[in-house]
């Protein structure tokens, strides 16, 4: 499922030795509770090389001091995770976060671009002056859809726990539970005057983050909602198999990030190698490159908005700076910081900011976002898409 409200995607760089291996990986991650239901953004190795850039100006957290704070709390019989959270909060690290060991392990298990859940998205809405948790989306063929639940149904409880006072992310965490396929969860549901309990079995569900459709003018629309594992290659396949001369409308609206390696692969669909982005890790400068052999002639328009974040901004910046796409929409979110996870004494994991990335032309993204070539801010989604299609047609990408 696409990323939902509350998802905080980050650009993270970490030594896999921290948890799973021995090489550096680059990734945008989301808040675990929300990503658990929407589909976690997994980790994957990227193509990195050294580059020469000014030293980063962003502050970083003293990781050794953080570990000591957690250790001291544990020695006093207190929660190391809570102490770490307070330390990170005081540090001013806007994107820093601390996750429990179980939470992080669940996230690690989502490397294949899938998640364990019941196949629904929920959010808090206001109805008749009252706030409630409502189902906003159902996955076709998922446990919730097969049981007959509908969008608009109210969630009253999860496993007997009332959800009226809980945040959407807390409800999502309850729906995910232990993350074990086949485990049972009981939902209290209300639809109009009817109310009942619905028992569901959690299942392993794949995340469909890339959809492709042919527009009536002959152009091809490629919608990427997140850069999960395999998303980049699906974009490349869609471009390779598009009819000759057909333009591509690359819709990155609401794309909350994902694997930076996948964003680079997606960039490779439109570039014949070359620079995608530069980034720093504690002052060490590196660069990310596209693969060769991409389609450099097909007209491309990238459609973006304020929900275009992180990996999606990295791709947008690469295509814009290298003159490969006309960008249409509104200013992007502005998330371009680099995080590195650190394991704490109690097994919890802190993801801490260590640097930032820049577009090929050297533009910083963090806190700034990317201004599209054609700004249609304030337009409805339908009107923004219509403007983008008009631009694409003018480039020769439509019949």
Structural write-up:
This protein has 399 residues and is an alpha+beta fold. The protein has ten helices and 22 strands. Helix 2 runs antiparallel to helix 3. The chain is globular, with a radius of gyration of 22 Å.
**N/C terminus separation:** 33 Å
Rg from alpha-carbon coordinates: 22 Å
CATH superfamily of the domain at 210-337 and 354-394, please? 2-enoyl-CoA Hydratase, Chain A, domain 1
SS-based structural class? alpha+beta
Question: What is the global morphology?
Answer: globular
Average pLDDT taken over every residue: 82
* Beta content: 25-35%
Tally of helical runs:
10
Low-confidence stretches: 1-59
Please provide the count of β strands.
22
The CATH topology label of the domain at 210-337 and 354-394 is: 2-enoyl-CoA Hydratase, Chain A, domain 1
Major sheet summary line = 8 strands, mixed
Specify the CATH class of the domain at 210-337 and 354-394. Answer: Alpha Beta
Q: Could you say what the CATH architecture of the domain at 210-337 and 354-394 is?
A: Alpha-Beta Complex
Helix content: 10-25%
Short account of what is shown:
β20 and β21 (349-358) form a beta hairpin.
């Amino acid at each position: 499922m696409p990323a939902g409200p509350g998802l905080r995607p980050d650009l993270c760089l970490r030594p896999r030795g921290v948890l799973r291996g021995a090489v550096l990986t680059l990734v945008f991650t989301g808040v675990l509770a929300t990503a658990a239901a929407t589909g976690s953004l997994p980790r994957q190795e990227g193509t990195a090389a050294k580059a020469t850039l000014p030293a980063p100006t962003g502050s970083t957290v003293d990781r050794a001091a953080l570990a000591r704070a957690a250790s001291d709390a544990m020695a006093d019989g207190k929660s190391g995770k809570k102490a770490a959270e307070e330390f990170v909060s005081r540090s001013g690290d806007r994107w820093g976060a601390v996750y429990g060991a179980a939470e992080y392990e669940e996230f690690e298990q989502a490397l294949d671009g899938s998640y364990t859940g019941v196949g629904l998205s929920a959010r808090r809405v206001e109805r008749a002056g009252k706030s409630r948790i409502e189902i906003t989306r159902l996955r076709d063929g998922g446990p919730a859809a097969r049981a007959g639940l509908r969008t608009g149904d109210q969630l009253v409880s999860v496993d007997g726990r009332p959800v009226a006072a809980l945040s959407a992310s807390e409800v999502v965490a309850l729906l995910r539970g232990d993350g074990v396929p086949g485990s049972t969860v009981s939902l209290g549901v209300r639809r109009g005057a009817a109310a009942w309990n619905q028992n569901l079995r959690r299942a392993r569900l794949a995340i469909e983050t890339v959809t492709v459709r042919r527009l009536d003018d002959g152009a091809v629309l490629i919608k990427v909602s997140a850069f999960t594992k395999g998303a980049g290659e699906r974009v490349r396949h869609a471009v390779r198999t598009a009819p000759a001369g057909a333009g591509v409308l690359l819709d990155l609206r609401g794309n909350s990030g994902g694997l930076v390696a996948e964003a680079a692969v997606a960039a490779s669909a439109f570039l014949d190698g070359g620079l995608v982005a530069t980034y720093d890790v504690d002052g060490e400068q590196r660069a990310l490159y596209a693969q060769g052999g991409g389609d450099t002639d097909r007209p491309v328009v990238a459609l973006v908005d304020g929900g275009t974040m992180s990996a999606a901004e990295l791709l947008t910046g690469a295509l814009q700076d290298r003159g490969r796409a006309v960008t249409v929409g509104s200013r992007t979110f502005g998330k371009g910081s680099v995080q590195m996870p650190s394991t704490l004494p109690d097994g919890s994991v802190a993801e801490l900011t260590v640097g930032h990335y820049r577009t090929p032309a050297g533009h910083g993204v963090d806190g700034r976002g990317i201004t599209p070539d054609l700004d249609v801010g304030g337009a409805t989604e339908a009107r923004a898409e219509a403007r983008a299609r008009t631009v694409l047609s003018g480039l020769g990408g439509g019949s």
